[in-house]
Amino acid sequence: MASNLGRHLVACLLNISEARQKSLVESVAQAAITDKHGRRRKGTTVLNIFSDYNYNRSVITIVASITLIKEAVFCACAKAFSLIDMDQHVGVHPCMGAVDLVPFYPLGEEVDLEDCGKEAQGLATALTERVLGTSAFFFGWADVPLRRGLAQRRKEMGWFQKIPNMAASQPDIGPQPTRQYGLTGIGASPYVMNCNVTINTPDLAVGRGVAAAIRESSPGGIPGVQVMALPHKGTVEIACNVESVQMGSLSSPAVGIEPWPAFSIGDRTLFHAPASLITARVTDLASRSGVTTKGTALVGFTPLECRTLAQRALDHDIGEFWKIMHSLQM
């Protein structure tokens, strides 16, 4: 049985364009859980910080109730904008903003996607009004009325280009993107996991072939999987965004025989591809080119893990949960 707090939780997997200065990344995380006087902001927690040196990108998992999430994320974003200069950024992962991505995900039964969409819009308004020079585009339930997905909006903004043309980008809110702050994607959707599988080759062409085969839009692709192949420490990483899907998507033969984990948003039941299925498909496809896999990494948690850990952290008033998370039994 979910606690009353658990029924109102929202997660934000904040993506910032910095991973090489640990103290900077942690100061952004601290801003989410402390007020301007350095006092603990009750009802908020940072569950995890995932940083990748090569990508020069960190993902900070912030969780709070729907009434508190916007202010916590605003403070983290404002801190990141004050410390990160995109004009100096170097990394192999595509990005357009110092704060590159701000997705809101409902975790509790009494929070719906429309609620999260409104909070995302409110955050964008606050940022562009209070951190002058910032700008954003909307996706998902913040993109009213079209509800275009993140991948589509990124294509429209030129996010996938090796050197994005900021002058050609048209933000939904705020001024033309500046070189310092860049452009931020802000939105809301059902929970999206990040699952990265490393294949043991420097050959990006092999990686792109694997990525194309498992992408949702490809024949035989895995439902809900959006994917890129990126160079990573002398190998290639198959970097997957694993979106939540409804039951109808599970009729595809590509779903495999393993049950897909399920979770609920309101009266809707959603599913996501298990990491084991993605790993198995990548392993099979890579082997056809004589390439092995090195390992799989989840960036953060599954939806149910995120909610369970957030309730534990908040029940015990632990803001810096990321510091103790790896010592706990999952």
The gist of it:
By secondary structure, the chain is α+β, with helices and mostly antiparallel strands.
Widest sheet, order of strands:
2-3-1-4-6-5
Supply the CATH architecture of the largest domain. 2-Layer Sandwich
The biggest sheet amounts to: 6 strands, mixed
The residue fraction in helices comes out at 25-40%
Low-confidence stretches: none
CATH superfamily of the largest domain: Formiminotransferase, N-terminal subdomain
> Would you list the SSEs in sequence order as H and E?
EHEEHEHEHEEHEEEEHEH
Structural class: alpha+beta
Plain-language structure description:
By secondary structure, this protein is α+β, with helices and mostly antiparallel strands. The protein folds into two domains: 6-189 and 303-327, Formiminotransferase-cyclodeaminase, Chain B, domain 1, CATH 3.30.990; 192-299, 2-Layer Sandwich (Alpha-Beta Plaits). Helices cover 27% and strands 25% of the residues. It is built from seven helices and twelve strands. The protein has helices at 22-33, 69-83, 113-130, 150-157, 204-214, 275-287, 303-315; strands at 9-16, 44-52, 57-65, 99-106, 136-140, 184-188, 192-199, 225-232, 235-243, 262-265, 268-271, 293-299. The strands form three sheets. Strands 2-3-1-4-6-5 form a six-stranded mixed sheet, sandwiched between helices. It has a four-stranded antiparallel sheet with strand order 8-9-7-12. It is globular. The protein starts with 8 loop residues before the first strand and ends in a 15-residue tail after the last helix. InterPro entries: Formiminotransferase_C_sf, Formiminotransferase_N, Formiminotransferase_N_sf, FormiminoTrfase_cat_dom_sf, FTCD.
